[in-house]
Amino acid sequence: xxxxxxxxPIKKNSSxxxxxxxxxxxxCISSAIREIYFSKISLIYHNRYQAENTHPKLILCSHRxxxxxxxxxxxxxxxxxxxxxxxxxxxxxMRTFFTGIPVVRKKDRQRLGVNANIFSSPxxxxxxxxxxxxxxxxxxxxxSEWGFQPLPYQRGAARIIRTLISEGVVFDIIPMGLFYIAPxxxxxxxxxxxxxxxxxxxxxxxxxxxxxxxxxxxxxxTALNRISVNCPNIDIFEKASAYAFNKNKDGHSYAESFxxxxxxxxxxxxDNQNIERNSQFSxxxxxxxxxxxxxxxxxxxxxxxxxxxxxxxRNTISFFKIxxxxxxxxxxxxxxxxxxxxFPVFIGISLASALFGFILIRKKGAQxx
Length: 369
Prior knowledge:
alpha/beta, globular
C-alpha cells in the first residue's frame, strides 16, 4: 500500500502519496492546456518497447521551456509524478496547475525565504515513490534555459539511481529530450524524443559511495547529452535549428534531424541553408489572419499577450502566456455562456469563427521558427 511521505506543512497543500499516479485532475488540466496551446506534440521513440514495459520508471528529461516542460513530458508518461520547485507549490494559484514532490532550490530560498529543512528530502521521497511502483519525472538541470546546450546537471538523479541499485530495486532509466520549433509561440510544434534506456555499467566494487555516484552521474549526463539539445556553440545551434526546421517541412522528424546534425558536424553547406524568409512571412500572415477570426476570444488573447511581458527570457514567455490565458479563460468563459442566452446567433457565429481561426492557425501558421 502506498505510504504518505511528506510532513504536515506540505501535506495540506499536496496530495502526493508514494507510488500513486499523478492525480486525475492534474492529468486532465495538463492534457487540456497542452493540447490547446501547442499545435502538435509528436512522440519519437528510439525503441517503443522499452518505454512500454511494466517496470517503474525514472524519466530524466531535458529542460527547455520553463515549468510547462512537465506538461509536454506527461504526453509520453501521463501518470508520472515529478519533483517540483516549491515556487510552483507555494500559492493556491500555482497549485491549480502544478503538483509534485517539493524541491527547495537555492534561488527559492533567496526569493521566497523558504527554509528547506521543514520539507522531506526530495531524493528520499523520489526513491520511496519508485520503490512503491510509481513513475518519476525528473529534470536534472533543475532549471530551464533556451540555450545551445544543457545547464549543468545536478547530482540528485545519480544519488537516486545509486540508492535504488544498492537496494536491488528493478526500474528503468529513460532519457528524454524536448524539441520546440518555437518555444515562445502559441500553436508551436513540439517533439519529444524518448531515448534508449540507460543501463548503468559502473559497479560499486572498491569505489567509495561518492566515486560510484560520480560515475553514475557521468553515464547519465552522457546519455542525456546524446538525445537533447547539446551543441558546442550558438552558431552550431542556429544551424542545427535551421537544418531541422527545413527537414521537418519535408516530413522528417525535427528532433531526429536536430540530433543528427549536432552529432554529425560534417554536414555540407547545402544542409546549412537559412530558413526561407518568404515562407516565414507567409506563415506570419496566416497567424495574424487566424487571430482575427478569434475576435470573440480577444480578452483571453490580450491577457496572454500582456502576461508574456512579465517573462525575463525566451524560455518563460509561454509560461506567462499560458497562465495569463488560463486565468482570463476562467473569467471570460462563464461570461460567454451568459451572453449566449441573450445573443445566441451572434455568439454562436463568433464561436464558430474562433474555431475556424484555431484550426487555421494549426494548419497554416504553426510551423514557424
